[in-house]
Design a protein that fits this description.
199 residues; mainly alpha
């Protein structure tokens, strides 16, 4: 799927992946001969953005910093419209940018803080059945309000993670065969995700 001249594009792709810059170009983003590697770039960008989040949290507190991150994620595609129109071939890069997906990262950080006992979360955030509602909201928002999809999907998995942490604490997962199998797959699941195309 590389355009001509193919060898030049392959060289650019290799360099972009080595430097984790492939997340800024649609052809290179799905390149490297392994499309799932797009997540590696986002992960690196989110690691860098974590320092910004720490500063935000220090100055504004948790609730306001989450609201800022969410607002940035919703507004970023609109702010980019003059440079990258919604029908542009670059629009996918904007919609899957680390700024848009940042809210999911922040929710993960909040789940960790809750697990460590640093903060207390409301009851709804650990009720597994609510995760299904968030997921349905994520699917619906893809059609009607795409800007809300990252938040809804993020809340769905945030709720699942918190419910599993509670279940793990109460030992209710320790004998569940599905939970044991998922736990074992979880040890190498990211590697599995990254290698399933080549395999």
């Amino acid at each position: 799927y590389y355009p001509e001249p193919k060898l030049t594009w392959i060289g650019l792709d290799f360099g972009a992946h080595v430097l984790m810059l492939h997340g800024f170009h649609p052809i290179l983003d799905a390149g490297g001969g392994n499309p799932p590697m797009w997540t590696l770039a986002r992960e690196e960008y989110l690691y860098l953005m974590y320092f910004v989040l720490l500063e935000l949290r220090k100055w504004t507190g948790m609730r306001v910093s989450v609201l800022i991150v969410f607002t940035l994620g919703i507004s970023f595609p609109h702010l980019m419209n003059p440079l990258v129109p919604a029908n542009s071939y670059l629009a996918g890069i904007v919609r899957s940018s680390s700024i848009v997906l940042w809210i999911q990262w922040v929710l993960g950080a909040i789940a960790v803080e809750s697990h460590l006992g640093l903060i207390m979360l409301p009851e709804w955030s650990r009720n597994a059945w609510i995760a299904g509602l968030w997921f349905v909201a994520g699917e619906a928002s893809k059609i009607w309000t795409p800007a809300l999809s990252p938040l809804c999907y993020g809340l769905s998995f945030f709720t699942i993670v918190n419910a599993c942490v509670i279940a793990e604490r109460t030992k209710s997962l320790s004998t569940n065969k599905l939970a044991i199998w998922l736990s074992n797959v979880g040890v190498f699941s990211y590697s599995l995700y990254l290698i399933h195309y080549p395999v």
